[in-house]
Amino acid sequence: MRGLYYVGLDIHKKTIAYCVKRADGHIVDEGTVRATRSSLADWVSARRGRWIVGMEATLFTGWVYDFLKPCVSDVKVGHPYMLRAIVAGKKKNDRLDARTLSDLLRCDLFPACYMAPPEVRELRRVLRYRNLLVSEATRMKNKTAGLLMEVGAEYTKSRLHGKRYFNELLHALEEVPSSVLRLLRLSHESMEIFERNQRWLLEELARDPELCSRLQRLMSVAGVGEVTALTWALEIGDPHRFRSVKQAVSYCGLCSRQDESAGVSKRGPLSKQRNKHLQRVLVEAAKLAPRWNPQLAAVYTRERDRGGNHNRATLAVARKLVSYLLCVDKTKKPFELKEAA
Description:
This protein is α/β, with parallel strands linked by helices. The chain has helices at 37-45, 61-68, 80-86, 94-106, 118-150, 163-172, 178-206, 212-218, 226-236, 245-251, 276-288, 294-305, 310-331, and strands spanning 4-11, 15-21, 27-34, 50-56, 74-78, 256-261, 264-270. It contains 13 helices and seven strands.
């Protein structure tokens, strides 16, 4: 194989369907290969010439992207939502998907999305795992309270998850089945394990030398804590890929979807096309940030004065928070509010 070739890869858990085409659309080769590093290495060694690879963003895309990048002229990862609209058709199978991806590449219509560097993706994986531990700890807390309510036990909600109070409560419970006592101990121990591990992961991320200075700058915005700064830095990646604040706000899922037809525009609920991790953290931060940040408090008050409810005012604060964080991240300077001239 000589010249420039366009390769579409449809990646799955166990197999990868591929299609190799020339610029004129002629199929040079197609088939499937096992989704393992050794099989992919053998497949790459049989390729000749220069080739461009396109694949859809899935759970398995990361390692294939990193594996192929040193071997090819270019690797592109397609935006799942845009590809879904482009390749909609009656028939859909792995072979046709690979052909379509290669056609989009050779026609220069491939909707490529941003791929963060491997080191950023590695830290992002750790942060998302920490978020999983936090949610599991919350589930165990709720289960502990639920078990006590099932047997009609009285307890103080604000002190329930403290170690000393919990042990005293277990000894004071009367007419409670032994199975419930065992489940209570198990739930509390699991909660402590999740809490301890999530704190350890958070400390490890905060000590990363590549992130330290960036986190300090982001946390110079009053109301932005360690978790918010970490989530922003690792989920955004390179802030310069956003040309405007509006683009960043849209990526964070803080704007509503728009339907316009015949000059009539309608606004719907918040768009589902967003980074759900950033959206959740920014909304939670926006609920608390006005307590420490007078400027964000003014944004909240102004939105309420216009007739907006609490949720709408919180979203306004979150959008303003995005503009602050993006400015700090792009300029690489601590946040400093300038007085109006």
